[in-house]
Amino acid sequence: METKLTDYGIAGKIIRLQHYTHAEVLVEDEIRKGAKTVVIVGNDKTFGYVLSRAATCKITYGFLPVGPDNNIAEVLGISVGVEACDVLARRRKLKLDVGWVNNRYFISQLHIPPSRIEIEYDESFRVSAKSGKMELVVCNLKPFSWSGKGKEYIVHPQDGKLEAFLRPIIKSKIMKRDRLEPPSIFPFEEMVVSSKTPFPVETDGKVSKEMKIKIRLAKSRIDMVVGKGRRF
Predict the structure, then answer these.
(1) Is residue 138 pLDDT above 60, yes or no?
(2) Which residue has the higher pLDDT, 189 or 78?
(3) What are the structural domains, with CATH classification, of the chain?
(4) Do the Cβ atoms of 141 and 96 come closer than 8 Å?
């Protein structure tokens, strides 16, 4: 990759992320030093780690995906490996939506596994499950995969809305085990999820326990280099 980038005349400072690295502070510091583009090298987890903290930084982001777990790269139209350098060199840019949850950002996906939660969205509707538990997935860039039917839903990250996929648990007396219903899809602008007991929330690889969260679109968007074969 470094050799290919050199052939394109692309060069810059290389910074390796550590567990204690604060991405927003790091990016803002490089902007003050004159950086115009930040290129993230890694997989979905790396991509989410950087942008969940530095999404509001006024700079163009590129992505060079390497290794497994690169669903976001496919959506962005970026090949995994050396060919990603070609996309970066063309600098085809788009402004993409960013999600916001309890004072932090998420770029790919938010996931709440089956929990006893109640959902209110756009201050208009309330949703809860008869069985008491349901799964919630809110997608921005990362697709929602429904393994039960082998389906995959690609979300449009420029439509000014987030998409929520709700799957209540069905109590089965015959099979003697619970199963998830097919997903219901709700586009929304703002959603409040609450519960009487703590529930797990995973956003871009980070897991926390919450009693109440507010999810909405962030006011700002990110400038991202994308490929011609993007899936939106």
Answers:
(1) yes
(2) 78
(3) 2-98+220-225 (3.40.50.10330), 104-217 (2.60.200.30)
(4) yes
